[in-house]
Structure formats: C-alpha cells, structure tokens
Design brief:
single chain, 297 residues, alpha/beta, Rossmann fold
Amino acid sequence: MALSFVIVDDDAVSRRMLEGIIEQCGLGEVAGTADGGIQGEQTVLSLKPDIVLIDLLMPDQDGIETISQLRNQGFAGQFVMISQVVNKDMVGSAYHSGVEFFIHKPINRVEVEAVLSKVRDRLAYERHIQEIKRSLAKIDLFESTPAPKERHPRDVVKPILMELGIMGESGSKDIMTIMELLSRQPDPTAFPALKELYEAAARTNNKGDQEIDKESKAIEQRLRRTVMAALSHMASIGLTDYSNPKFEHYAPLYFDFQDVRLKMKAIEEELPADKGKVNVKKFLQVMHAEMLEKLKI
C-alpha cells in the first residue's frame, strides 16, 4: 500500500531525516513538509496525506492544538507524534486527541521504520474493513430481491485460493477441508488449536486411528508449503507493482508484513524458494474470518 506523508516539525534536520527514512525504507512518499503548526494545518488540508508526522512542541502552535484544529476541519488521516518530552500529562493529552503512535527524538531509523510499518498495517486493515462494510451496504440495498442460493464454504474459499495463486498446491485441498470443518462446528466462529484442526482433517481422509498422527503431520507440512507459496506469490506481485490492488489487499491481511518484506528481499537475492517464515495460524484465521463474512454465519 503506497502511502503519502506530511511532516510537520520546526526542526529542519528532523524533517530531512524523517523524509530520508520514509523514502529509503519504501514506506511511501513525502507529499509535503511544514515548519510549524499553523503552516502544517494548511499543508495537511491541502495535500490530504494518509499519515501526518507532527512534532509535539512547536513555537507557533503545538502539535496537540494542530491535531485538534485539523480534526475539527474534517481531516481523518492518521497522526504520529514526534517528541523528546516524556511528560505523562502531555502524552495523555496526545492520546486524548487521537494519537496512538509516537516517535521519540533524537530520531532513530529503526524506531521510525517499525512505528510507520505498524501504522501502515493498521491502515490496510481499516481499509479492508471499510471495503467489507461498503459491500454489505450494497447487499442491503437489494434486500427485497429473492434470497440467493445458499453458498458452500468451498465456493467462498476457492476464489481466495486462486487470488493467492495457490489453487494448484496440494495443501489447498487441506485448506478447503479445514474451512468446511470449521463451518460445521456448533459455534462456527470458534477457531480450535491447529493440532485439533489437523487431526480432524486427517480423519476425513479415511485414515485409521494409527495413521491419524502421521497424516496430521503430513497436512501440517503441506499447509506450510502452500502458505509459503502464497507468500512468494504476493511478494512477486509486490516486487513488480507495489500498488497492485491484489497485493495491497492480501499481503498485509494474510501475512505479517515483515515476512512479506523479507520474502521480497529473498526473491531479489535469488535465495532458495523454501527460505523464509510464515504464520500458518494467522493465514487460516484470516481465511476463516473472510469465509464467515461471505457466508454470513
């Protein structure tokens, strides 16, 4: 997800450092900067960035007052507060004004990258939720139309697997089996431990009791390879086009973004395809949530 930033700080050195870190780390584009709160208001309202990095203490108008003014004028972007002051009252005021993320002075590259990556992931999640809400709103407009034919979990999961580029992987069948099993639970929203899911899926393969453990481990390995293949597919898309809608939607939703970045680096350096790590549980939990949303369970 390509993000736009505005930096509001009366310290020119800090502005240059932050701008350099954002662009060098591939976090997005700095659309503009301002050297004070009043000028910052005008710049933010004019450019409408996704994220505003704003200094807490500025001579003309402090960061908290500037944020308040911008909120009153309808700006809905994210704020990241920059401060070298450790004062509980001021931090409390910042939280009260809607600031959830802080960067401390002196500027540290590692901290800046970590904080802004978290903000980016939060925005990606919020935008995904908004997409779901918009889709549901469209459905509500047609409530008077005949009820559609009941959908099967496989009908919902298959398109997702195709988008992730893993429909042909052996583990895709295991994923569909697990999603079916989850939909049949007394409480379909519950998510059991992975070991329980693997064992339940193994039993559907008509394995005897003595073979359940062996088949469970085989399912675990197939799933890991399949999720890794999905990660590789997303990373390849991201390397080609970072703003690709498929990459923007699936990469931050199904994977830890740090894993995506590491995989992109591994592809660039032509490391072995199996190198890297994936969070299989998160992958299955997200797919489970999407399935429930689409099935309206």
